[in-house]
Design brief:
This protein has a single domain, classed as Arc Repressor Mutant, subunit A (Orthogonal Bundle). The protein contains five helices and two strands; from the N terminus they run ααααββα. It is elongated and about 50 Å long. The longest helix is centred in the middle third of the chain and has 15 residues. Helix content is 45%, strand content 7%.
């Protein structure tokens, strides 16, 4: 197996030195970038024009709801998501999923709110 002796648990732990030794290009992505990507993917999978509550994304992705709320501020400022208030409020993609790129998501996640 290509990734033998590597601790691959979800997207969290990679041994970059071993990947480089095997000739595999690897890129380190910040926690904000990874979580932002996971949140945007979740929104894309549940894209129907309606809002998705942060607590639902947090539960499905096993992420901290408070951390996601902070991250969504950056994504909203970047114009990638729109928010709605109220008891069933939440976040939705501002554009169709096909018009949002991974690089844009990672860059938006790096913005500090």
């Amino acid at each position: 197996m290509l990734f033998d002796n590597l601790a691959l648990e979800g997207y969290r732990y990679y041994n970059y030195d071993k990947l480089a030794h095997k000739g595999i290009a690897a890129m380190r992505i910040s926690t904000r970038g990874r979580y932002g990507t996971r949140a945007m993917l979740d929104l894309a999978l549940h894209y129907d024009g309606g809002s998705v509550m942060v607590k639902d994304i947090a539960r499905r992705q096993q992420l901290s709801g408070r951390y996601l709320e902070q991250l969504f501020v950056s994504l909203r400022v970047a114009g990638m998501v729109r928010s709605s208030r109220g008891t069933r409020g939440g976040f939705a993609l501002a554009r169709p999923p096909s018009q949002i790129g991974l690089g844009e998501t990672i860059r938006a996640g790096l913005l500090q709110s």
